[in-house]
């Protein structure tokens, strides 16, 4: 039956489909289609991680406040987040009267698109990475820098004073904390001599984690990066833009339905990416042994095992979600003037000191 | 079969042209600013085609991020009320024809001055080589320059007159 018209038609259609798919893949790209599939698998894994993030956060926060948290949907409430997502997706799509339609639509697309694009250079093991590009961590920072103007436009387009003031605060805060965040990792980049996150992790496998090195300057840089990362994700104690007692929900006030779902997704994607960046730069990446090269052959063989590396980074990620939740439960919100002066007057000079300290003790100047 | 870079280049070029037109014809200042962000990011993507990733990072983070926020803050903080650009239909038609004329000239000019052998633009690994070739060809195709220069001069003149008009309107 191989030469029947139906089978030849199916053959032609499948040939055409393969040609159409391969036309989107550059010819000089090694691996081609399999690489594309691996990239999609990694992206999906990070999306699942960031879906579990809010569940862990709500559960941990509830325990710290003496409650049970989500409990009834699925086993011990594990399906609560997908249920919330389903509810938001099927809600009516509304837009405030006199809202600017162009800004209202485009800001959400920009915010969602850029947050998902930031997954590309994040490795889950030495081989499992979307794109090990030479710009590495710079790529994530460049993509993140689109977020403040998009959030500002979203706030303005909502035609609401709360959203507009929230947009102003959001843009100001993100700008103030982006600079110390980048300066704090500049020392590490100088020591490793590469922007690639895989190179940074491999350096830490040989020489020990950056957080525990350079006579405390590594720890200082890590603290600055963590605090600035919390401010970048606009979480308590830095959630000034959406301070609910003053501004309802800040720039997010007027968004509902699937747009609100995207905004909440972006919030947790930022938490995920910032936690993962911290892990790669200061906390050993996919390595579990913090003291550099080990004499024990068992440790050496396990730390180079791909599956162990993926498991390590997943456990580390949930550890950082736990930290972020504890900070959220424990600390009160700062004021906007305190926040900006803390960013510009304290974190920025401290990050310069940390950078110079790391470079000095690493022997870059000698 | 369509090459990936051909496809990307055409999509990106259309994106730049339409978002550039959006900057010109948007009715509100903030819409123009948003379109400008799209244009700048689109221009940054051209750097990716010539393997200049660092330039892409600089263009996106400085222009797409920093300068865009500066423009948005300036746009919101310097106006008391919502700015609306008003076009009547004849104005719109004339300016649209004018822009089309300039675009057509640019198209003719660029199609003459890009490297003649098809495929050069993306098979070279060296961005510098490509740029040098481009400017050499511009230098050689000087009759193309003669066609385009008056239009560029006219465009700047129109921009100058428009800004004068806007400045006078604010005083009134």
Strand-helix topology:
The complex is a heterodimer of chains A (366) and B (172).
Chain A: H1 5-22, H2 33-64, H3 80-89, H4 101-117, H5 137-144, H6 147-157, H7 161-192, H8 197-207, H9 217-232, H10 244-247, H11 258-282, H12 297-303, H13 306-330, H14 336-361
Helix pairs in contact in A: 2-11, 2-13, 4-6, 4-11, 6-7, 7-9, 7-14, 9-11, 9-14, 11-13
Chain B: H1 4-25, H2 29-49, H3 53-77, H4 89-113, H5 120-123, H6 127-140, H7 142-171
The number of helices of chain B is: 7
- Secondary-structure-based class of chain A equals mainly alpha
Classify the beta-strand content of chain B into a percent band.
under 5%
**How far apart lie the N and C ends of chain B?**
59 Å
Q: Major sheet of chain B: size, sense and barrel closure?
A: none
State the low-pLDDT regions of chain B, or none.
Answer: 117-124
Coarse shape of chain B: globular
Level of helix content of chain A? Answer: 55-70%
Strand percentage of chain A lies at under 5%
Protein described:
The complex is a heterodimer of chains A (366) and B (172). The model of chain A has no long low-confidence stretch (mean pLDDT 84). Chain A has helices at residues 5-22, 33-64, 80-89, 101-117, 137-144, 147-157, 161-192, 197-207, 217-232, 244-247, 258-282, 297-303, 306-330, 336-361. Chain A contains 14 helices and no strands. With 366 residues, chain A is an all-alpha fold. Chain A has one domain (82-361). Chain B is mainly α and 172 residues long. Chain B folds into two domains: 1-82, Up-down Bundle (Four Helix Bundle (Hemerythrin (Met), subunit A)), CATH 1.20.120.1200; 87-172. Classes of the chains: A mainly alpha (366), B mainly alpha (172). The interface between A and B is medium-sized, with 31 and 28 residues.
